[in-house]
Amino acid sequence: MESVANDLHSAIQITDRLRQIRETEASLRPAPGKWSKKEILGHLIDSAANNHQRFVRLQLYPRIDLPGYAQDEWVRVQQYQSRPWAEIIDLWQIYNTQLTSLIRSVDPKTLKHVWHTPDGKDVDLEFLMRDYIVHLRHHLDQILSR
To answer: Which of 43, 52, 61, 138 is most buried by a 10 A CB count?
Structure first.
């Protein structure tokens, strides 16, 4: 999983570009019901928190049953919109630095351990780690392309 860890490490390098975005721009919602840049990055923090649980627990147990998460509600409850942009960036960067280390040191014997999702699917740890990077890059592209 070294390549996945390297991909995540590479993605974190975008932090300097995120810091160039002004607070007012980061707070702007492009349309009603759409997330601001603050809320998108906050969503990525929530994704990191939820996946962190999966990444650790799947190395400890061959099968886990954890809930999914209601992403809109998580963003709303944590009020990323009213938080300072720099603070959101810092938390995102630190959390993903931790996940980079975790992914880099994953026990290869655990990569086929499965999360039994709330909708009844079995998803293995290797897929979750790879998909985490795809999801993260998708949302970073959203932030930087607006």
So the answer is: 43
